[in-house]
Amino acid sequence: MAENHREIIANIERLNQLMDRNNYSAVVARSGKNFTYLAGFAYPGTLARHLDFPDSPRGVLVVWPRHGDPVLVANEIAAPLARRDGWIENVQVYDGYGESPYARTVEVLKEMGLERKRIGLEKDYLSARQWEEMTSLVPKAKIMDCTDMMDQVRWIKTPAEVEMLEKGANLLDEVYLEVFPTVRPGDTEREVHSRIIEGCIRRGANWAHGILNTSRNSVAYGGEGDMAFQAGDIIRNDYVSYLNGYPGHQSRTVVVGEPSSELIETYKINRDIYRATIDHCRPGVRASDIYHFANNAFGDAGIEGKVALAGHGVGAWWHQQEPYMVPSGKHTLEKGMVVALEPHIGPWHLQDMVLITDGAPRLLSPLINTDEMMVTG
């Protein structure tokens, strides 16, 4: 590794342990989650879209051997940023439109002497054509799906990753504290959304996305339009702000103007269920049990509806990662995980990221007190 490159914050010790357990001589990362995690930086803008699309003619990959130095495979447009910001010193360049990135990756594997070894690829991200290309170019290698293994690597955070997530969480809450008090009746969803995105970018986020709607909008994920807020509306919000590829990810219940006594009481019920769900997150608890705990609590409180997603893991590149707290959630929580909890029904959306510890979960962003709902004006 080059001395001037950033410190590796990924959990390489756990990666090595799981590679040994699964007998992998190397893993090849192509997905945004695993590429960013192992490369140590996040591509912005157009380069990010090429990382998202499996059929991109300008794909980028990381070859991470169990022994020896990793190699990053990039086209000539993507290589300079990898050399400047990443922690992998060896960047191999291919012709982005005239050469297959997978053929170049196979050359790297052969140079490492791994063409007959067990190699992990992400079967849930490579297309059937790319999988066939890789297996045909190294016919004597044993190509296996490493998707689940890489999920297990990423979900136990290093202290440096936790610190990065804390910075991202504080950044987003700072924006909420700046923007939400300024909302007035007549402001549109589009206007308020724009101010939140601008605030994130101004504070150093690579990019940000999310939803913001009035509680009178029946299509929560339909984009931010020209519908105007009115006094008494709940501002439903669910944002992700990425700092060096790691997300700040919170949601705050906000009311336009002074809330009625009914809104205050409803908020308290939702808040208490939310906090009890967070407290339920301890090592050894199944993700599915956390979902059922939250969903049953809403039912016991007489709230109609169903929780869609009680929570999820977080990590580099994309905020929603395993473990998913849904009825079919198959994993159990472990110390060192960072999870986002968001059990809610309707516009009463509270969300925080917490670190799983030996005791009570630790809140990553303490900037906003959720004892009471936020009030504009």
Structure explained in plain terms:
The structure is a single chain. This protein has 377 residues and is α+β, with helices and mostly antiparallel strands. Helices cover 34% and strands 19% of the residues. The chain contains eleven helices and 16 strands. Strands 4-3-2-1-5-6 form a six-stranded mixed β-sheet, with helices on both faces. Strands 7, 8, 9, 10 and 16 form a five-stranded mixed β-sheet that branches. A five-stranded antiparallel β-sheet has the order 12-11-13-14-15. A hairpin with a 6-residue loop joins strand 14 (352-355) and strand 15. Helix 1 (12-21) packs antiparallel against helix 7. The longest helix is centred in the middle third of the chain and has 21 residues, at 159-179. The relative contact order is 0.12. The model has no long low-confidence stretch (mean pLDDT 96).
Which helices and strands appear, and what pairs or packs with what?
Elements: H1 12-21, E1 26-29, H2 32-39, H3 45-52, E2 61-65, E3 71-75, H4 79-85, E4 90-94, H5 101-111, E5 118-121, H6 128-137, E6 142-145, H7 147-154, H8 159-179, H9 189-202, E7 207-214, E8 234-243, E9 246-250, E10 254-255, H10 261-279, H11 287-300, E11 311-313, E12 321-325, E13 338-341, E14 352-355, E15 362-363, E16 374-375
Parallel strand pairs: 1-5, 3-4, 5-6, 10-16
Antiparallel strand pairs: 1-2, 2-3, 7-8, 8-9, 8-10, 11-12, 11-13, 13-14, 14-15
Helix pairs in contact: 1-7, 8-9, 10-11
Span from first to last CA? Answer: 52 Å
Give Rg in angstroms. Answer: 22 Å
Overall pLDDT score: 96
| Helix-and-strand structural type | alpha+beta
State the order of secondary-structure elements, H for helix, E for strand: HEHHEEHEHEHEHHHEEEEHHEEEEEE
- Spatial strand arrangement across the major sheet: 4-3-2-1-5-6
Question: Sheet with the most strands?
Answer: 6 strands, mixed
Give the strand tally.
16
Shape: globular
Low-confidence stretches: none
Beta-strand content: 15-25%
Number of helices: 11
Binned, the helix content reads 25-40%
